[in-house]
Amino acid sequence: MNTDPSYWRRCSTCKADIGFGRKYFVCNVSTCNRKRTGLAFCSVECWDAHLPTVRHRDAWAVEKVAPRQGE
To answer: Which residues contact 42 (CB under 8 A, 6 or more apart)?
Structure first.
């Protein structure tokens, strides 16, 4: 059984793999960034798709980089 995944996390919308060291997006709203929620999106389009369900007043996507595999 392989316990070391080949990706860092999956996109919260489309479930595509977000690889180690790759660019991803998070929501700037604090309720989306809580440790328990931990939403991560592979593209701005996937981030935009979560907006109708959460009804933020003023939100934008923040670009981040996933950690490297050894981190």
So the answer is: 11, 13, 14, 16, 18, 24, 25
